[in-house]
Each structure stands twice: as structure tokens, then as C-alpha cells.
Amino acid sequence: MTATVYLPLLLALPLALVAGWIAARSAPAAAARALVAAAVVVAASSTWSLMLLALTLLDDVPPLRALDQDPTIELPEPVPGPIALGAALLLVWGAVRLVRDLRRRRDTYRMLRAGGSPHTDLVVADWAAPLAVAVPGRPGHLLVTTGILKLLDADGRRVVFAHERSHLAHRHHRLAAAAAAAAAINPLLARVRDAVAYLIERWADEDAARAVGDRELTARAVANAALATAGSGPAVLGMNGGSAVLRVRALAEPAPPPRRRRLIGLVVIGSGCFATAVIATVQFVTLARAWL
Length: 292
Hints:
The chain has helices at residues 7-10, 12-25, 28-55, 62-69, 81-113, 146-151, 154-169, 172-185, 190-212, 215-229, 244-251, 264-291, and strands spanning 122-125, 132-135, 141-145. By secondary structure, the chain is mainly alpha-helical. Helix 7 packs across helix 9 (190-212) and helix 10 packs antiparallel against helix 11.
């Protein structure tokens, strides 16, 4: 096996480096979808590469070890044992991180659904903690607390409700979950996860601004809501607070145009990752045939 098998592991680095730049300069909806797609491809490809490396440990089982020690047979050498063992440990570590993330997300959803059963798309919980969040499900609904309602005026409530309804309408929880899963499997993608969380909020901000017809009002409501809910929301959802200053500044400017040319780099990274994973697979199959 050549160095090709390691490339999917390394291509997470350029994706992490460009994620923040793309999040700051691109239309939120297109950028969020593109970043999530690229992160999923990179995470899957890097996991596949680790699996190929870990599978070379099979040359240590007794029948294959006997072949390797036979001087009359020349077999291609797999990767060094320590690298294969390290790959196996990384796979286990990634699986543990993924399970933990899924459990935190499940527990958070259960806690939010305990706030009440919706008769419409809105549940008002008599909680002192200021909170407004979209709760996914069938059907999904908005959960707001009496604490947040006391802090917002009528205009602020309109913005917050429009913001959270955008999360429900576009199923933002799925994008957040996919980005978080990719980062759990490959920690190098943590910046991508954070960029997607920010873009999801920006996406909902832009929808809210269109719904109320006032970007300045939306900016004020975002600032007030972020300050009110700081530290009180379920951060695991990636849909509450965070980067409020950047969001307010973005709302002070015109809505960004959908310049898809800025996303070409993501296509190149994803395609390169997939291609190198395919090449590594072909090399592994050749190696396996020689041994078996």
C-alpha cells in the first residue's frame, strides 16, 4: 500500500482551514449544505482509510504469518504494525466519540420534549430560564419559556419565532447532527462543525429578517436573545446563541448573494478525498489477493 491511503486523513486539514473563510463570506444556506456534504465525505473516506490500515493487522494471524515467514514466497509488505494498530485504536476512539455525541443529542431532545406537548407548533414552558429553541420531531415544534417571553417585546418575539421556525422548516438539526458526527469521527473537522453551527444560525437570521421585513430589528432581537439565553440553552444542538456579534454584524449588511464559485474548493476536496479512498481500496484488494 502506498501513501495514497493516508491522503483522506490529511485532506481534513484544508477543509478545516477554509471552513471559517467560507462561513464568513458565503450565503448561509448554500455554504452550510456544501460544508456538511464535504465533511461527511471526508469523514467517511478517512474512516475507510483507517479501516484499510487496521485490516493489515490480519497478516499476523497464524496462517498468514506462516506464509510471511516462508523464504520461498515473496509477498508484498503491508503497512508497519504500529501504524495499523494506531489506526485500529483511532477507529475505536472515533466510535466512542460518535456514540457519546448521539446520546447527548438524544437526551437533549428528550429534555426539550418534556417541556410539553404542542397543540399547535408552539409550547410555552413555565421555566424561569430564558430559552427559545426548535424541537425536531413528528411534528416538530417551538419551545419557548416564560423567562424569554418576559425579556422580549412583541417585535423581538416575532423575530425569535421566525428564526426558530426556519430551523424547523429547513431541518437544520439534521445538518448540525451530520457535521457533529463527522467531527466526532474525525476531530480535525471540529472547525467545520463550528462553522456549520454558525451558518445554520445565520440562515435562520436571514429567514427571520425576510419574515419581519426589517434587518435592523432582527439584529437587535438576535443580540437581545443571545444575551438573554447565554449559557442556558442546549449547546449540543448547535442552534442556540453563539457568535452573536458576528451574526449582528452580518445583519447590518445586505444579504450575501449566492456566489457558488466560492464553494468550488469544497467540491475539489471532497472529490479528491473520494478518489484517493477508491485508489487505496484498489491497492488493498491487490495486497489481499497476493496474501490470500
